[in-house]
Write a structure and sequence with these properties.
With 204 residues, this protein is mainly alpha-helical.
Length: 204
């Protein structure tokens, strides 16, 4: 349903701009808008932050739909999309760390924000590293990607947990859940990829 809506939105925006609105413009705009969102998280305007996270999170779908519509899907676009997603998380967890320090009276809890961003980056790193290794050693793309992806806490789920934490005024708890879930996901991806690569070594 969301993808269908964003596909229609992509058609409308493409027509309105005469094709001048590019997927990369949407990607960069979505990233820049996470700067004020991170500020709202830091200053504990949680409802506004949650609402805008949902709105700008949809841009992650819009840029892909626009790229398909304009036939502009490219490796550079995928790189930009992935890199800005990681930058968004860094910004958001900086905001969350500040909010935790200011609101809980227990500043040591901010260490969970550090853990959350670190483990989140590990999850994405396993995906990127796995794709690179699969390409280098000509490992079956579908089976390799299945080992390097998936799991309990991909990007979309991490953002959903953060939104729920903002709406319930439980940002510290949400950050802890993201940290633990992401650590587990990264470990599962590592073990799955290690096993999959081992099988290809034997077959090779």
């Amino acid at each position: 349903m969301v993808r269908a809506f964003m596909r229609r939105m992509a058609r409308v925006l493409n027509r309105a701009s005469g094709g001048k609105l590019t997927p990369n413009m949407v990607t960069i705009f979505g990233f820049l808008m996470h700067i004020p969102v991170a500020f709202l998280v830091a200053t504990r305007h949680n409802l506004w932050a949650a609402g805008l996270l949902v709105v700008f999170g949809l841009l992650d779908t819009l840029d892909g739909q626009l790229a398909q519509l304009q036939k502009r899907e490219s490796a550079r676009g995928m790189l930009l999309d992935s890199a800005t997603d990681r930058m968004k998380e860094v910004l958001l967890y900086i905001g969350a760390a500040y909010a935790i320090i200011q609101s809980t009276g227990r500043p040591y809890l901010a260490v969970w924000a550090v853990a959350a961003v670190g483990c989140s980056l590990l999850v994405s790193y396993m995906n990127a590293w796995g794709d690179a290794v699969a390409a280098k050693y000509n490992i079956g793309k579908h089976s390799a990607n299945k080992a390097f992806r998936g799991g309990l806490m991909p990007f979309e789920i991490r953002m959903t947990v953060l939104v729920v934490g903002l709406l319930s005024n439980r940002v510290a708890l949400a950050v802890i859940v993201v940290a633990v879930g992401s650590a587990f996901t990264a470990l599962m991806r590592l073990l799955g990829a290690y096993e999959r690569l081992g099988k290809d070594d034997v077959q090779g």
